[in-house]
Design goal:
The complex is a heterodimer of chains A (about 70) and B (about 575).
Chain A: H1 6-23, H2 28-43, H3 46-57
Chain B: E1 33-39, H1 43-54, E2 59-62, E3 76-78, H2 79-87, H3 91-95, E4 99-101, E5 103-108, E6 111-117, E7 129-131, H4 134-147, E8 151-153, E9 157-164, E10 167-174, E11 177-188, H5 195-199, E12 205-208, E13 212-219, E14 228-232, E15 241-246, E16 251-258, H6 264-267, H7 270-283, E17 291-298, E18 301-304, E19 309-310, E20 313-315, E21 321-322, H8 331-349, H9 357-383, H10 388-403, E22 469-474, H11 478-493, E23 498-504, E24 517-520, H12 525-529, E25 536-540, E26 546-551, H13 558-565
Helix pairs in contact in B: 1-4, 1-8, 8-9, 11-13
């Protein structure tokens, strides 16, 4: 499977953010769900899509106060 | 009558000095005409004055206040800034007591989501980042200016300006009354709220962001390595970003976005500032006493004048543009402006460059400002998302980055880097350019090289450099050296300061011909870093950017390259004026 080059990912970041702003707050969830379905259709890998759904669903835990003073 | 604050600013680590007002000749019956006046004795104005003097002009500096800046302000300087300080003889003093660093870490909810080590090599004389508060930096520059005999007129405020095609007349207010001063050229280094800019009715173009950042310097005996620490979404400031930096002299800096519903006044309330510092120290587990040193409120902007040269008035640093400081782009950008402007203006004053060269100051530095706005726009979108869409994307990237590698590069904070003036009208690109596999490209800043990395006492290529243009001849071939020497002699006869430097690689026969400096490169480190194994020539502008380079068999000549870099086509007939000995 090919992945997106870094500079394209930067551009997609901006495009997505601007699209969310355009559709407005009450439509943003549906917009993102539509996009996810369309991407799943084009990706065509059932197992991978399910595993990505589970990954993105998992909440980020608050870790112990990080040891941020050692660099 | 102008009455500046005469009480020294308070600081726990820096002792402020009040500089007295001294009656100038203009108030004692004489009316000398000055070639160039620099307005503002901040880091930018002092650097410009030093660099003008290095290039053979005789500037004076005018400053409204009686002391240097209050607080630490700019605190991180790039390698390029240190190299420019080295050119004006101030790098050693700036490094005294400074902290050096090259690492940054970003955290999100206790997880490390981005780590960056700024690359360095044995050829770097200076660290990628040098931390030193701005007041110390200004003191270093001021002492250097005094050593160079540059006059600084303290407690002198510009209250009027008239300019025409031959010069500028300033009306100045002082504690002892007003006087007028006449000069050929004026450099405005009077900062973000430039009085000169206002008097010329010039306006910034671009956009101001709505986000505001509070900067708190506090004294704390916290022992930890220097570096950039970024905390997204800390429990005490949910949804926002916080930066923590170590400064010298026991000072740390906390820098965070002020939530939109908090007013400027509320943001600066001492109780709120104290609560935030304590909350962050609690969060990172530093149970330790501290006290506030200095605070300010900062608003990131991407604003710039459309041009930086307006007839006899030139704008530099914050007076010319307000750029986002993310990635240390404030003072470091201004220092590069000054380094670009100084040799050009000094060359015009000395009659060796066409005044058209000042247009290239605008062109080259505007190109940098645009690159900075483009790069900083992305850092700014990450640090202060401008809309709901960008906030959602930022949060998505942070959450994904906890367990995924692919989103982490989006958190790169893009440090300021020197621009290549590749498209500049001053740059010559020779047909042999395609033969180069390495080395600084035409327009790029020169690359320092350590000649003997394993020796106890290190020697550097830049040690051989002096004021003016540098002509570096590689390969030791007599014919090439003879041609370059003849051109250097012709340029000198026109009043141009040129330095001829021979680089002797391991394979080269030492030439009997004389030069201003001969650099022995027994390990071939310069030859390989500059990509010129078969011999050839590099010509550097006085700001050390490459004017041209070519390999041995090219037909490009030093004289034509230097004349082009001075915006001239034919030899100048102007009487040559060498810099005086004290300034050379």
């Amino acid at each position: 499977m090919s992945t997106l080059p870094q500079s394209d990912l930067e551009d997609i970041y901006d495009e997505l953010a601007e699209a969310i702003d355009r559709v407005g707050q009450d439509q943003e969830t549906v917009f993102l769900a539509k996009l996810a379905l369309a991407l799943a259709h084009h990706l065509g890998d059932r197992a991978l899509i399910s595993s990505l759904i589970r990954d993105c669903e998992a909440p980020v835990s608050e870790a112990q106060a990080p040891d941020t003073l050692s660099l | 009558m102008h009455q500046p604050e005469l009480t020294p600013q308070r600081s726990s680590y820096f002792s402020y000095q009040i500089h007295p007002f001294a009656k100038p000749p203009e108030m004692q019956g004489s009316a000398p005409r000055h070639t160039v006046v620099v307005v503002g004795a901040g880091p930018n104005g002092l650097l410009v004055a030093l660099d003008l003097a290095r290039n053979g002009a005789r500037p004076i500096v005018i400053e409204a206040e009686a002391q240097i800046c209050g607080g630490s302000r700019a605190v991180a300087f790039t390698r390029r800034t240190l190299e420019i300080f080295e050119q004006v003889g101030a790098s050693d003093a700036l490094l005294e007591g400074a902290l050096l660093w090259d690492k940054g870490r970003s955290f999100y909810r206790g997880h490390m989501v981005h780590a960056l080590q700024i690359p360095g090599s044995v050829d770097d004389r200076f660290a990628p980042m040098t931390n030193q508060p701005q007041n110390v930096m200004e003191k270093v520059l001021l002492e250097r200016a005094a050593a160079m005999g540059i006059e600084v007129r303290w407690q002198t405020r510009v209250v009027g300006l008239e300019s025409d095609e031959s010069g500028v007349q300033l009306k100045l207010d002082t504690p002892e009354g007003e006087y007028t001063l006449a000069c050929d050229w004026l450099v405005a280094c009077d900062g973000a709220r430039s009085a000169i800019r206002r008097m010329q009715n010039l306006r910034f173009e671009g956009r101001a962001y709505t986000g505001r950042f509070a900067i708190i310097d506090f004294r704390v005996p916290l022992d930890a390595p220097t570096g950039r620490r970024c905390y997204f979404d800390p429990p005490w400031l949910p949804g926002y970003a916080v930066l923590l930096h170590k400064a010298p002299y026991g000072i740390w800096r906390l820098d965070y976005q002020v939530p939109d519903d908090v007013s400027d006044e509320e943001a600066l309330e001492p109780s709120r500032l104290r609560a935030h510092v304590q909350a962050h120290l609690d969060y990172i587990g530093a149970n330790i006493d501290w006290e506030i040193e200095w605070v300010t409120l900062y608003k990131p902007n991407t604003l710039s004048l459309a041009r930086y040269n307006h007839g006899r008035v030139l704008y530099c640093g914050d007076a010319a543009h307000l750029l986002p400081v993310f990635g240390v782009r404030g003072v470091n950008t201004g220092v590069q402006d000054g380094n670009n402007l100084s040799w050009k203006l000094a060359s015009v004053i000395r009659g060796i460059a066409s005044p058209a060269i000042l247009d290239t100051y605008t062109d080259e530095r505007l190109a940098d400002a645009q690159q900075i706005c483009f790069e900083a726009a992305r850092s700014t979108r990450m640090m202060t998302p401008p809309s709901r869409g960008f906030r959602i994307l930022r949060d998505a990237v942070l959450q994904l980055s906890v367990r995924n590698e692919f989103t982490r590069p989006l958190l790169h904070w893009r440090t300021s880097r020197p621009i290549d003036y590749a498209d500049s009208a001053l740059t010559t690109v020779d047909a042999s350019e395609t033969h180069f596999k390495a080395g600084p490209r035409p327009g790029a800043p020169a690359r320092n090289v350590c000649i003997n990395p394993d020796a106890d006492s290190r020697a550097w290529l830049f040690d051989a450099f002096g004021p003016g243009f540098q002509v570096l001849v590689f390969g030791g071939r007599d014919a090439a050296i003879q041609t370059a020497s003849a051109d250097v002699a012709a340029l000198r006869a026109e009043g141009v300061t040129v330095r001829l430097i021979l680089i002797h690689g391991p394979q080269d026969r030492p030439s009997a011909r004389s030069a201003d400096a001969v650099v022995s490169d027994p390990l071939g480190r310069i030859v390989s870093a500059w990509g010129i194994p078969g011999g050839g020539v590099y010509v550097l502008r006085p700001d050390q950017h490459v004017a041209a380079r070519w390999t041995g068999d090219a037909h490009t000549r030093v004289a034509q390259v230097v004349r082009k870099a001075l915006c001239r086509t034919a030899p100048s007939t102007t009487e040559s004026r060498q810099p005086s000995e004290a300034l050379a």
